Amino acid sequence: MVSTRCKMVVKDVLRSMGLHFIVVDLGEVDIMETLSIEEILQLKLALVESGLELMDDKKAVLIERIKNVIIEMIHYDEELPMMNYSDHISTKLNHDYTYLSNIFSEIKGITIQQFIIVHKVERIKELIIYDELNITEIAWKMNYSSVAHLSNQFKKITGLSPSHFKQLKEKRRNPLDEIGN
Question: 81-104: buried (b, 16+ CB within 10 Å) or exposed (e) per residue?
Fold first, then answer.
C-alpha cells in the first residue's frame, strides 16, 4: 500500500469480510482474527480485484516495508530526517541496514540509495509543479548540499534540468507505486 486510498480500500475489504483490524498502515495489516486457509484465499482474491496484493513471503514483505518507509519519508513526512537515510530506515524497521540493503538489491535489482534518489526526484517534480518554492528552497527542503547537486541528480534521472522541466507545458509525473519497479 502506497497511499491513503490503498489503506481505505484494504479497510473496506476487511470490513466486507467481517474482519476486525487493529492496524492498517502502509504495507502492514494486523487483524484480530486468525484466518482459515479459505478466508486467506478470499482475502487475496478481494484484494486482487481491488488492484492490490496480499504478500506472505517474508522477503517480499520486508521489501514492501522498506519501500513504504522511503515513500513515507520522502513524500508524506513534512521534513526529511536529519539523520542518514540508512540509519532512519534501519531504526524504523529494527534491522541492520546492511541486511536490508542486501535483500533489497537482491530482490529489486537496484540499491536502496537508487530507490531513494528516484523518489526524491519525483518529489522534486511535485514541488516544481506546485511552484510554491524556488529551486534553492527545494534543494534545502530535500536535504541536498547544493542546488548544483540537486540539478545534477535531477538531470541524470529525467534527462532535463529542473528549470527546463518547469518550462514544460505537459509536466510528467509517475505514480508512486511505479517508481523504482
Answer: eeeebeebbbebbebebeebbebb
